[in-house]
Amino acid sequence: MSLNASDLNIVKVSADQLLNNVLNTVYLVGGMLAVIVIIVAGYFYVTSSGNATTVEKAKNAILYSVIGLVIILLAFVVTWFVIGRFQ
Fold this sequence. Notes:
The protein is mostly helical. The chain contains 2 helices and no strands. The two termini are 38 Å apart.
């Protein structure tokens, strides 16, 4: 007895659809991580009690997370534009 993909109800996905799905997943996970880091850094900023090193670390974490979000957004726009050109 041989099994076919259609017998198992496995969906066939083209390479460009697979790439699009993988990239969207990476963008989603990266964005979620950046937002979580912003929330945690905000908590550390609020609870720093005026400790200069903790305040500086929290500010840097927030800054770098926002920069990361901007880079993720730009990467999403670029890949959306490029993939849209070839479909």
